[in-house]
Amino acid sequence: MIRPFIIATLVVECLVLTVFAAPSQDDNYVSNYDHYAAQCRAQIGDIPAFSCASGRVIPITVDGKVPGRYTKDMTCDRPALLPNGSQSDGQCVPGSRILNLSELDTQISVMCRQKQIRAKDSLSFDEIDVIAHNPISGATCWFQASATQGGSIDGASVPSPTGADGSTFFNPPEDVVKDGCGICHDNDPFMYSPFMGQVWSQVPVNPFGPYYQVNTPVLGFDKWPTQQMQPRDSTCTGCHRIGTKETCGQLADWASGEAPPGANALAKSYPLSHSMPPFHGQSLATWEVINQASVARIGACCADPTSPACNLTEIAHYFK
Ligand code: HEC
Ligand code: HEC
After folding, report:
1. 296 C-alpha to center of ligand 1: Å?
2. Ligand 2 atom 18: residue of nearest CA
3. What is the spatial distance between Cα 120 and Cα 70, in angstroms, rounded to a whole number?
4. pLDDT tens per residue, range 169-181
5. CA 207, CA 187: separation in Å to the nearest integer?
6. How far apart (Å, rounded) are the C-alpha atoms in residues 263 and 240?
7. I want to staple 167 with a disulfide (CB 3.0 to 4.6 A). Which of 33, 74, 137, 263 is the partner?
8. Hey, whose CA ends up nearest to atom 43 of ligand 2?
9. Residue 142, ligand 1, Cβ within 6 A
10. 43 and 139 in contact (C-beta within 8 Å)?
């Protein structure tokens, strides 16, 4: 006879809990944004507020000189490699800015990106991207604010992505997951391109450090790739890892002779056509002897990463 009593008590308790717990659940409601930002704060640290105005402008040159005029879909010496999209003014848009907000134990890189040609020194941008990385543990967070079609975002006074106003400015983390940052940034958080090479002193690096995505159970940052390839005798894996998505794919091709969209004649000719290793100073014949076989093996492993010769391993991380 105890059973019905227990059941009755449980039913009453459930009713009481539903009536009284519901409002307090609302009080404790944490948005995906705030949950992610809290994890980023805990695993990496605070990201400060900033202004794109303090960033270094990334040059767009033609035959080594700043052109008198920029035009839609023009070509240049060092086009940006992130595809700006069909609605943009192409890959040679001036005025993007890079900021290094790193401290001793926190590496933070900010890109204020121009995809449309705007007035010189404009602080309106198409996109603001933030990478925050803990070089000791490997924890990495990603934030993005993007303009709506035809609009722009104000880069003059950007709130802290991990602060109370972060969610008013930056996209929800579920949109960031969809953007797939880690599919291109697949070997380590920070990315080299000849475009970035012009301002490389402003980009933090941690090529062999641990690397993992901060996540919350519902977001899916952990679905981004986590493996590197290590084909034998590779000159391409001596200075950094090569991942299994974009660093072995298009980015490796563009670093070893294939011209990216927006490349002009200078960009297509040696040595700019072969940007890896950076600033190598070799003749093309020497470059080929040293690197051609390694580049071919990377291409083959990219097409079939599970082949035993590619020796896939998990990228090191300390916590997950
Ligand atoms: C399609 C590939 C691709 C995707 C997706 C991508 N990036 Fe990048 N990112 C690049 C490339 C390539 C560069 C180097 C600059 C250039 O040449 O455009 C770069 C550069 C950056 C930089 C400047 C510092 C550095 O590493 O050079 C930041 C910050 C950045 N990305 C953040 C992000 C964030 C945040 C996301 C996701 C919201 C993202 N990126 C998605 C390809 C990508
Ligand atoms: C002398 C050192 C060195 C060698 C050798 C080298 N690289 Fe790099 N590479 C770098 C540095 C430095 C970066 C940017 C740092 C980083 O990865 O964080 C980079 C970045 C890259 C990137 C962009 C992705 C990224 O993480 O920034 C690609 C793609 C790449 N290298 C391909 C190659 C290929 C292909 C080879 C072989 C032909 C090669 N690299 C050999 C130094 C080197």
Report:
1. 25
2. 207
3. 10
4. 999 999 999 999 9
5. 8
6. 25
7. 33
8. 277
9. yes
10. yes
